[in-house]
Amino acid sequence: MVHLNRIYTRSGDDGTTGLGDGTRLPKHHERIAAYGTTDELSSVLGLALANGVPEPYAAWVQSIQNDLFDVGSDLCRPGGADDGSRMTGKYTEQLEHWIDEVNDGLEALTSFILPGGTQAAAWMHLGRTVCRRAERHINALMDDPAEKGNVNPEVLRYVNRLSDLLFVLARAMNDGGKADVLWVPAARKNEPAQD
Fold this sequence. Notes:
- By secondary structure, the chain is mainly α.
- It has helices spanning 30-50, 57-75, 89-103, 119-143, 153-172, and strands spanning 16-18, 24-26, 113-114, 181-182.
- Strand 1 and strand 2 form a beta hairpin.
- Helix 1 (30-50) packs antiparallel against helix 2 and helix 3 runs parallel beside helix 5.
- The longest helix has 25 residues, at 119-143.
């Protein structure tokens, strides 16, 4: 159980932050960037919820926010999947179920999509890009020889699949893909410049 009775501790004033196992790392360390970016993603999803994500997706997104705290918990405690990690394959399986359910009702894609459309869809697209950044930080952490075996691989699988879910949710919130704005390659190539 988490119990916070003081918000500031002053312990980070030296440019370090404490991990769940008591280790202190520089605030710019890849591990801190990885779990900090998952926290940022949760905040983006909170903004999405505040701006009208419809049901049943709103309940899914709130559940994902909870999952992201488990992701952050696994990332802030060095150790692999066998070291008391919270993330398991069940988390990713749930995302895959939701992806398949949503994707079955979408218009077929004929081009890449420009992020935007409805307000809720735009927030999902922003969430998707923040999720991809978190994935890059997690992958870089896992590639660090000093961190070999210190990251639960289920974290990377989950975040990878989550970006896919956020993409299909954005399309669902754009009238099932009918209101998606498609990329037009080289659209301005032959246009004269305008004043």
